[in-house]
């Protein structure tokens, strides 16, 4: 099949466009190699972010350990128990004290139940929480009462002096003359 003159021109133009595109477009291998290479900047950012994450983890774990130690009451020494103080060995202008024959008795420190400092704080928090719950319940009850007693502000506009006539039905045991008052006057 042979090409006609216009078709040859079109094919030649397309070839020129293809060559121009090939000259401008980078080679695939260059693009591929550039994409595969890891840039030192991205590696540096990764290292910094890893170091920051590790530091945060260490800080969090140490805070957790300190919190757990402070949260558990340990044995506390009662300051009311007096300990024997040692007498000074010598003072200027006095004779040295004779050495003791027996060592002083060792006092044993009795561990008392731990002082609950946090219990007062806990009681205050618990009382505050209970008060907040009670206030919330009261608010819910007030809202329920206000909703149940709500009336439309335009209800008075919907009332008329003839409401009792419009909302009541005639009694069927009344006489025909009394019923005629409800019917329109058609005899003219």
Main sheet? none
Number of helices: 6
Radius of gyration: 50 Å
Alpha-carbon distance between the two ends:
103 Å
Strand proportion, as a percent range, falls in under 5%
Helix and strand sequence: HHHHHH
**Helix amount:** 40-55%
Structure classification: mainly alpha
User: Per the principal axes of the C-alpha atoms, what is the gross shape?
Assistant: flat
User: Unreliable runs, pLDDT <50, ≥5 residues?
Assistant: 82-88
Number of strands: 0
What is the residue-mean pLDDT, rounded to a whole number? 75
Note down, in words, how this protein is organized.
The chain contains 6 helices and no strands. It is mainly alpha-helical and 188 residues long.
Helix and strand arrangement:
Elements: H1 5-24, H2 28-36, H3 40-71, H4 117-148, H5 163-167, H6 176-180
Short recap of the structure:
This protein is mostly helical and 188 residues long. It has 6 helices and no strands.
Supply database-style keywords.
188 residues; flat; 6 helices
